[in-house]
Write a structure and sequence with these properties.
The complex is a heterodimer of chains A (275) and B (284). Chain A is an all-alpha fold. Chain A contains 11 helices and 2 strands. The chains are: A mainly alpha (275), B mainly alpha (284). Chains A and B meet through α1, α3, α4, α5 and α6 of A and α1, α3, α4, α5 and α6 of B.
Chain lengths: 275, 284
């Protein structure tokens, strides 16, 4: 075995070690609050010394936390539903007519908006701009801010699905057979892209549900979200904070793993069809 | 008849894109313009006072320096790790690949403060791992590595930046022709030579795009920093939070500070967008 082969062997070991360590680190960070949620006492051992369900009993009886959960669900649901509608229309528009250069450039900007404009700047200026208006004190201000941060996820998901099913040909076929826009939409497009819609919905729900940076600045006092509750309880009682965190983790885990599952199913289905 | 068709088409176009344009104008363009306006005014007169205050004050300059340095370090580290992981993913079966990708996606979706919370829970001065090490191995972790510090923040950032890099690069590596590496290897090139002469030239647009992406994310995120080093750290984002939650609420100064971040993030994200077109595969 030459020295070069040994080098490659070492490189391979290093790479796999890096993966294993990173995954271990991420899983440790991600799931230790879930264990902590069931702890009454946890100081000197690998797993809690005293287990309990009281943390969950507490968070489901505390009016502030219940209220925060309700507002988070309300905001996340409204955000994902409205961003789905907005970007579904955009995707339809892109395939309905001949492609135009400037409009594509505009939609490419969508993908980089959250990167381009820091969330803190957006939240700050939206607070200043809309505080005196009608939406200032409602959950809608949070919804609109969240629509901008989930836009790349929704747009990407829908766009890639529209590419997989070849939406342009579908629309053309449906129109040439005499179907109008609404028939095309409800009878042809939606049944074919529901998995893309579902994936986009779940991802944007999870992102909006887990957002702290915008909510912390923008949320009106009666719509304090669950992440704000986590932040406040992390100073008071870490096990109760862990219990709230584990709800957020549950939402994120469900969303990411089902998105992966759905998209794999969808890709398998459509490659089979085209094959 | 023809005219009617045109009108109908125009109406449908309008119906399809007007919600998007409305949201775009009202909740991206308008707030951004407000920020620009606020940063350039004090009271109601135009002035550069806010920017002068930021760039002449030693403490604000320090905050900018810290923010840039932490973002640079954490993105460089995550770029190295993420590249390795993305490369190794190509050898794994698709189901395992999806599982690893989903795990890496988790910290991206979590609120940043959960990461900070877990780090303190595990490695903080009375964290579980710290306690176990102190009881059983007589190692005092906080004296070696304190999580409530800038280095701890970099460690926290790594957990979600790695995911961004891996997901951006995995598409590139999946479409990468591995026979090139085999060819280089069989001709006697070592790993470094293969990396620099064959792999990097091909993946460099994606590498740069990933770097820009994670750099901006590290620069503009504040949830993790607030929960981890809220009282002690001096970062631009933390200063903004202080300015807006203070008794002396000052939206003009806050806007100017946020514009400092935007001055970095806007040009670099435009470059990112251009590079992205050359990158094969999905980006989060």
């Amino acid at each position: 075995m030459s020295i070069i082969d040994v080098l490659y062997r070492i490189l391979k070991v290093v790479i796999y070690l890096a993966i294993a360590l990173t995954l271990l680190y991420i899983s440790l960070l991600s799931f230790s609050p879930v264990i902590g949620a069931f702890a009454l006492k946890w100081h000197y051992t690998l797993l809690p010394e005293v287990w309990t369900l009281d943390n969950f009993k507490f968070i489901f009886s505390d009016p502030f936390i219940i209220r925060s959960l309700e507002s988070s669900v309300l905001v996340a649901f409204t955000t994902s539903l409205s961003s789905l509608v907005i970007y579904l229309l955009v995707i339809l528009f892109m395939h309905y007519k001949e492609q135009r250069g400037w409009i594509n450039t505009l939609f490419e900007i969508v993908v980089i908006i959250p990167l381009m404009i820091p969330a803190i700047l957006l939240a700050l200026s939206m607070y200043e701009l809309y505080r005196p208006t009608a939406i200032g004190g409602t959950f809608l201000i949070l919804v609109f801010a969240h629509i901008t941060i989930v836009s790349p996820y929704v747009y990407r998901n829908l766009y890639s699905v529209s590419k997989i099913i070849d939406m342009k040909s579908l629309i053309e076929a449906s129109r040439s057979l005499g179907a109008g826009l609404f028939t095309t939409l409800f009878k042809v497009i939606l049944p074919n892209i529901y998995h893309g819609l579902l994936g986009a919905f779940l991802l944007s729900f999870a992102i909006s549900f887990g957002d702290f940076e915008i909510a912390n600045i923008l949320a009106p006092w009666q719509y304090r979200t669950v992440t704000i509750a986590i932040f406040q309880y992390s100073f008071k009682n870490i096990w109760i904070a862990s219990a709230i965190i584990s709800i957020v983790i549950f939402v994120s885990v469900t969303a990411t793993f089902s998105v992966a599952y759905i998209s794999r199913k969808a890709i398998a289905k459509y490659t089979e069809v085209t094959r | 008849m023809l005219k009617l068709n045109v009108n109908k088409g125009f109406f449908i176009d309008l119906l399809l894109v007007s919600p998007f344009f409305l949201v775009f104008a009202l909740f991206i363009v308008a707030p951004f313009s407000v920020s620009v306006y606020y940063s350039l005014t004090r009271g109601s007169s135009f002035t550069l006072e806010n920017y002068i205050k930021i760039f002449t004050s030693e403490s604000y300059r320090d905050a900018i320096r810290n923010s840039l340095l932490i973002s640079l370090k954490s993105s460089a580290l995550s770029l190295v790790l993420g590249t390795f992981i993305a490369y190794a993913l190509t050898f794994l079966p698709p189901s395992v690949r999806d599982l690893i990708k989903s795990i890496l996606l988790l910290p991206i979706i979590y609120p940043g403060l959960v990461i900070a919370f877990s780090l303190v829970l595990l490695f903080g001065s009375s964290g579980i791992v710290t306690n176990i090490l102190r009881m059983n191995f007589n190692i005092d972790l906080p004296s070696v590595f304190n999580v409530r510090s800038y280095d701890g923040l970099i460690l926290a950032y790594l957990s979600f930046l790695v995911g961004f890099v891996t997901i951006t690069l995995s598409g590139v590596f999946l479409s990468f022709d591995k026979t090139l590496i085999e060819a280089g290897r069989s001709l006697g090139a070592g790993p470094l030579r293969v990396a620099f002469k064959i792999v990097f030239p091909i993946i460099s647009p994606a590498l740069i795009a990933a770097f820009i992406q994670v750099f901006i994310i590290a620069l503009s995120a504040y949830g993790t920093a607030l929960a981890l080093i809220g009282g002690i750290g001096n970062l631009i984002t933390l200063r903004i939070i202080t300015v807006i939650s203070d008794v002396a609420y000052d939206p003009h100064l806050a806007a100017a500070l946020a514009m400092v971040i935007a001055m970095v993030s806007i040009p670099s994200s435009i470059i990112y967008g251009k590079l992205l077109k050359k990158v094969v595969g999905g980006v989060v």
